[in-house]
Amino acid sequence: EPVPKLAAAMAPSTGKPAVTPESVINLDHGDPTMFEEFWQGTGSAAEIVIPGWQTMSYFSDVGNVCWFLEPGFGHEVRRLHRLVGNAAVDDGYHVLVGTGSTQLFMAALYALSPPGAPAPMSVVSTAPYYSSYPAVTDFLQSGLFRWAGDASSFKGDTYIELVCSPNNPDGAIREAVLSSESGVAVHDLAYYWPQYTAITRRADHDIMLFTVSKSTGHAGTRIGWALVKDREVAKRMTKFIELNTIGVSKDSQLRAAKVLRAVSDAYELPKGREAHRLFDYGRRKMVERWSMLREAAAASGIFSLPEETSGYCNFAKETAATNPAFAWLRCDREDVDDCASFLRGHKILTRSGSQFGADPRYVRVSMLDRDDAYDIFVKRLSSLR
Ligand code: PMP
Questions:
Q1: Which residues contact 242 (CB under 8 A, 6 or more apart)?
Q2: Domain limit, last residue, from 267, 287, 305
Q3: pTM of the predicted model, to two decimals?
Q4: How many domains are contained in the chain?
């Protein structure tokens, strides 16, 4: 790891250099630092203290399928879903905790791929798909499962279909495109929260993945959760995590529980907490950023963006536009066939469409960075011709 030379010029806690108008702006990763400002204002509501003797055991709840799930975290997960209405948590759903939803994604592949099958299970997702899906599926070259590409061109009836909605990278609202007796879907609902999209229905799929990385912005806490209907699948997913990391950090679970609790309290406790309502804050920020971006793209004249869609949000009780966590930006200039390198030439780092199984004229741009970086990005973008 390079040792930072100018500690004073570092932004707090991230090790990233502070930005200046000449800086390279890195919007390649979806690092949710936009939310820091909100959490700077919540004071002790989201703080925890852990005495030296606590969280020492491997175990949390030995009677539960997920024996390393901190009950307080499980409780706050269910409470938040009931408040927001974005996912069913009653009717026998199991809550599983993972080191980010990334670990739960791997656990789901393991749980859904029968051992001793004649060929590895095919793992598919409609393009453009989240670039980690192929990378994470294939990095250990498992004999159990294998990346098989774009779901819309897949032939066969045994598969795991990854359905990301709203979709990373393009923000589209998605449903499974395949259906068969022996095919299964895993729903990645990392962005199904009111700051990004209208909550139009209570999702009740067999396996649903969520993460604090995108809901509250606490990516560094590395906590995700799965809502799983079937007990046997829940057991196999738990087994994967047992073999992989013998459970999930209790310290992180306690912190995540406190953070989720602060989010719910701000809506459910009486009065005086309006300023600490995360989804209201997040929606305001995203609306503002998307309007800045659309203006910048229009001023430049060489970029296009997905059309804005909207729906009635059962949580906000009003019609709300989608404000995706990423912009799926297309460069329309005839002589530019690689938008990522064109933008890199202007010191804007993005992720190429090619990494999502799509056209390199597209790039994915994070909408969740800090204000200073975002402001420089839109200013620079609007000046490109
Ligand atoms: N799913 C999607 C669609 C994501 O965009 C991300 C984060 N970029 C993840 C999962 C992983 O989240 P986590 O930090 O919880 O591992």
A1: 68
A2: 267
A3: 0.95
A4: 2
Cis peptide before 128 (omega within 30 of 0): yes
| pLDDT tens digits, 26-83 | 999 999 999 999 999 999 999 999 999 999 999 999 999 999 999 999 999 999 999 9
User: Among 34, 35, 132, 174, which is best to mutate for testing ligand 1, by the most ligand atoms less than 8 A from CB?
Assistant: 132
Pocket (CB within 6 angstroms of ligand 1): 30, 100-102, 130, 164, 168, 188, 190, 211, 213, 219, 224
In the chain, the amino acid numbered 307 is: E
- Which of 102, 109, 174, 365 has most ligand 1 atoms within 8 Å of CB, for mutation? 102
Share of the chain above pLDDT 70, in %: 96
Which residues contact residue 4 at a Cβ distance below 8 angstroms, ignoring those fewer than 6 apart? 10, 15, 17
- Asked whether 25 and 379 are in contact (CB, 8 A), the reply is no
Q: Which residues, 6 or more positions from 50, have their beta carbon under 8 angstroms from its beta carbon?
A: 251, 254
Note whether residue 153 is domain-resident. yes
Residue 68 tokens read as: 């390393």
CATH number at residue 175: 3.40.640.10
User: Are the beta carbons of 222 and 100 closer than 8 angstroms?
Assistant: yes
Does 52 map to a domain?
A: no
- The whole-angstrom separation of Cα 70 and Cα 307 is 42
In the numeric block, the tokens 């209570």 are attached to 202
**Ligand 1 atom with the shortest distance to the CA of 213:** 14
d(CA 169, CA 174): 12
User: What's the CA-to-centroid distance between 103 and ligand 1, angstroms?
Assistant: 10
Q: Structural domain of residue 101, as residue ranges?
A: 71-267
Same domain (yes/no): 129, 227? yes
Give 28 Cα–ligand 1 centroid separation in angstroms: 14
Residues 127 and 16 in one domain: no
Q: What are phi and psi of 82, to 5 degrees?
A: -65, -40
Same domain, 182 and 330: no
Q: Which atom of ligand 1 is nearest to the CA of 30?
A: 8
Query: Phi/psi of residue 117, each to 5°?
Result: -70, 155
The CATH number that applies at residue 369 is: 3.90.1150.10
Check whether 224 has a pLDDT greater than 80: yes
Please answer whether residues 170 and 304 qualify as being in contact, where contact means their C-beta atoms are separated by less than 8 angstroms: no
ipTM (interface predicted TM): 0.99
